Structure formats: structure tokens, C-alpha cells
Amino acid sequence: MVRGRREQKLKEYLQQLPGKERVKVICMDLSSTYRSLVKKYFPNAMIVADRFHVIRLIQRKDWPKNYG
Questions:
Q1: For residues 42-57, b (16+ Cβ closer than 10 Å) or e, as one string?
Q2: Domains of the chain by residue range
Q3: ∠ CA(38), CA(50), CA(44), 5° rounding?
Q4: Is residue 66 pLDDT above 70, yes or no?
Q5: How far apart are CA 68 and CA 37, in angstroms?
Q6: Could you tell me which of 42, 7, 1 has the C-alpha nearest to residue 25?
Q7: In this predicted model, what pLDDT tens digit does every residue of 22-63 receive, in sequence order?
Q8: pTM for this one?
Q9: Which tops the pLDDT comparison, 5 or 40?
Q10: Contact call for residues 25 and 4 (beta carbons, < 8 A)
């Protein structure tokens, strides 16, 4: 686990993490920062949006405007 959500801290952690090339699936929220880090450090992994965040987005009134 990484303390905080700052991009630099996440990069530092992910750079030293072994076995990144073997990760197949990553379940995460829809943060564009997280998505770009996952694509960079886990090039073989498929990104799956976690259900909590998907449901929360659908329940928001601006869902059709932003995603539909």
C-alpha cells in the first residue's frame, strides 16, 4: 500500500515493485492519473473499473453529459 494519492509517491512505489509484467488485471477507480500509471507500469494488464465507482458515476446526474 502507498500512503496518499500523490502521483510522485505512486511512481516511486511502482518503479521498485517486482513482477509488474506478470499482472493481468487491475481493478481500480476511474482516475485518469491512476489509469496512466497503470498503462505505464503494467503494460500487460487489463484495466477494470471497480463496481462501486461505476455505480456512483451512473447515479450522478451528469453521467449522460460526460459519458453517454
A1: beebeeeeeeeeeeee
A2: 7-67
A3: 30
A4: no
A5: 25
A6: 42
A7: 999 999 988 888 899 999 999 999 999 889 888 887 887 666
A8: 0.72
A9: 40
A10: no
C-alpha cell at 68: 453517454
Taking the C-alpha atoms of residue 47 and residue 28, their distance in angstroms, rounded to an integer, is: 7
Contact 39, 28 (CB under 8 A): no
Q: CA of 58: how far to CAs of 5, 30, 65, in Å?
A: 24, 13, 11
Q: Which residues pair with 27 in a beta bridge?
A: 48
Q: How far apart are CA 61 and CA 41, in angstroms?
A: 34
